[in-house]
Please model this.
Amino acid sequence: MTSLSFRVRELWIDAKAVAAVEFAIVVPFMLLLYVGGVELSKAMAINVKVTATSHSVADMITQNTQVSAAQLQTILGASAKIIAPYPTTDSAGNSLITVTVSEVSTDGGGNATVQWSQSYNGVSFGTGRPVGQPIILPSSLTGGAQNTQNNNISLILGEVAYAYTPNLGYTIAGTVTLHDSYYLFPRCSTNSPANSSFPYYDVKLTTSTTCTCIQHLQQKTC
Model:
């Protein structure tokens, strides 16, 4: 009994390998923080690219008063490259990104609808949003129900969605869709209610003609 009590007391006060035991307890949490930090930083970097892409595709369209279907596809294809060095397709060839650009026009009552739209998923081109689809504009653009400042105008809407799958945390988070959108006014369209018909101040989608702001200002019309 005395020997057993002595061994129990000796085990109780034994401090050997305490550091190793503590490290074994802490290391899983350290690894979790490290892996989580790597995945979070990568997701944030891709999200910055998503925002830049949505702004860029809208910005390139607003520099024209007319764009041809072929030019629109070129702009969409070029904007998708902004996401590099991150992939636009997975190992099986499935698309990870969708870039959509649309023209949204408001009528005299401030009701916004899609006039034309096209999308690109890194592999093929699509129709984007349905023509005539009602759009609820952000409050930062409408300024409330009593504000008529943005009635009878057009906006170019750039949208990007990216399917991000964490390399190490898939079983926890799965695939996360990173999304952003950007509205910009056409820069030099002069199609006002006084000299044109709806939609006003727009960028027209044509079959072949392209008219940049400089051409429009020089020629007054295209």
Summary: The beta strands are 64-68, 97-106, 112-120, 125-126, 134-135, 154-164, 176-184, 204-206, 211-212. The first helix runs from residue 2 to 13. The chain is about 40% helix and 25% strand. The chain has one domain: 14-219.
